[in-house]
TrEMBL record:
<dbReference type="Pfam" id="PF22247">
    <property type="entry name" value="Diox-like_N"/>
</dbReference>
<keyword id="KW-0408">Iron</keyword>
<dbReference type="Pfam" id="PF00903">
    <property type="entry name" value="Glyoxalase"/>
</dbReference>
<feature type="domain" description="VOC">
    <location>
        <begin position="151"/>
        <end position="270"/>
    </location>
</feature>
<comment type="similarity">
    <text>Belongs to the extradiol ring-cleavage dioxygenase family.</text>
</comment>
<dbReference type="InterPro" id="IPR017624">
    <property type="entry name" value="Catechol_2-3_dOase"/>
</dbReference>
<keyword id="KW-0058">Aromatic hydrocarbons catabolism</keyword>
<comment type="subunit">
    <text>Homotetramer.</text>
</comment>
<dbReference type="InterPro" id="IPR029068">
    <property type="entry name" value="Glyas_Bleomycin-R_OHBP_Dase"/>
</dbReference>
<dbReference type="InterPro" id="IPR037523">
    <property type="entry name" value="VOC_core"/>
</dbReference>
<feature type="domain" description="VOC">
    <location>
        <begin position="7"/>
        <end position="123"/>
    </location>
</feature>
<keyword id="KW-0479">Metal-binding</keyword>
<dbReference type="GO" id="GO:0018577">
    <property type="term" value="F:catechol 2,3-dioxygenase activity"/>
</dbReference>
<dbReference type="InterPro" id="IPR000486">
    <property type="entry name" value="Xdiol_ring_cleave_dOase_1/2"/>
</dbReference>
<keyword id="KW-0560">Oxidoreductase</keyword>
<protein>
    <recommendedName>
        <fullName>Metapyrocatechase</fullName>
        <ecNumber>1.13.11.2</ecNumber>
    </recommendedName>
</protein>
<dbReference type="GO" id="GO:0008198">
    <property type="term" value="F:ferrous iron binding"/>
</dbReference>
Length: 308
């Protein structure tokens, strides 16, 4: 049952060199640079996103993800979900005051059983879609370069306790399980969770360590845009992981690459849609190669082992 969580709202990534990171996310991926706060964090967004930001970059000594945030429908829902998170038990739940992220209201922060930090928020400044607005809008802004990523879409995260994280996201936050991978004993080793009509809004893969980021993903409009992204990756000598190819899971058309700090990015197009009455799509673990890389049907070692 839906609990008022609408969609992914933002992700804060740790980067080793801010100037290089901004060049990557702004100039190569085509995100719009919106703000730099007093702490030196840089805020960016995809051009179709109405909220002020969806990506925050923080300079640090180690790459990875600080937290991922989801937007809820209103402040009353935020209060209600805080109570449910506290009643769930075993979670470190706290409130971050409004303004700690520029332009964002108060946030309820909690640590999932996989060790990842998540946030819920209801209020954020809305400057609107970049370059087109919402009154007699043009089709697209003519001054966006790079890959022209339209939005921050999801994260794939690695951690140990998938069962309790699944319970948290489905029973407390109202997500649906759209796809899963089961081992021969019937244990879930991957889960793709959605709070919308998308194929997934966050996904988890079973891993011995807590709190690892596999990738942050951004949406493109078409398969041609994915091929164009591949050209830009080659033109800029950006470190590539795999692609362009297609997923079996979600059926999206995809390419993976790395930012200068080693955080993995994905840009993709297409993919399945999901309604709450849809049955869960299940893959067998022995078919994981085809599930991830539908054409090659095998996984490369980097995809499995390189995490931040």
């Amino acid at each position: 049952m839906k609990k008022g969580v609408m969609r992914p709202g933002h992700v804060q990534l740790r980067v080793l060199d801010m100037a290089e990171a901004v060049k990557h996310y702004r100039d190569l991926m085509g995100l719009i640079e919106m703000h730099t706060d007093e702490a030196g964090r840089v805020y960016l967004k995809g051009w179709t996103e109405v909220d002020k930001f969806s990506v925050v970059l923080r300079q640090a000594d180690e790459a990875g993800m600080d937290f991922m945030g989801f937007k809820v429908v209103d402040e009353a829902t935020l209060d209600s979900l805080r109570q449910e998170l506290e009643a769930f038990g075993g979670l470190d739940v706290s409130e971050i005051p409004a303004g700690e992220l520029a332009g964002c209201g108060r946030r309820i922060r909690f640590t999932a059983p996989t060790g990842h930090v998540f946030e819920l928020f209801a209020t954020k400044e809305q400057p609107g879609k970049y370059g087109v607005g919402h009154h007699n809008p043009e089709a697209w802004p003519r001054d966006v370069g790079g890959m022209r990523a339209t939005r921050f879409d999801h994260c794939l995260l690695y951690g140990d306790d998938l069962d309790n994280t699944h319970k948290l996201f489905t029973e407390v936050l109202g997500f649906d399980l759209a796809e899963q991978v089961l081992d021969p004993a019937g244990n879930r080793v991957a889960q793709f969770l959605t709070t919308s009509m998308k194929a997934h809004d966050v996904a988890f893969i079973k891993h011995g360590e807590k709190n690892k980021l596999h990738h942050a993903s951004f949406y493109l409009d078409t398969w041609y845009d994915v091929l164009r992204a591949a050209d830009l990756i080659a033109m800029t000598d950006t470190s590539i992981d795999i692609g362009p190819t297609r997923h079996g899971l979600t059926h999206g058309q995809t390419i993976y690459f790395f930012d200068p700090s080693g955080n993995r990015n994905e840009v993709f197009a297409g993919g399945d849609y999901f309604y709450s009455d849809h049955p869960v799509t299940t893959w067998d673990a022995e078919q994981l190669g085809k599930a991830i890389f539908y054409h090659d049907r095998v996984l490369n070692e980097r995809f499995l082992s390189v995490l931040t």
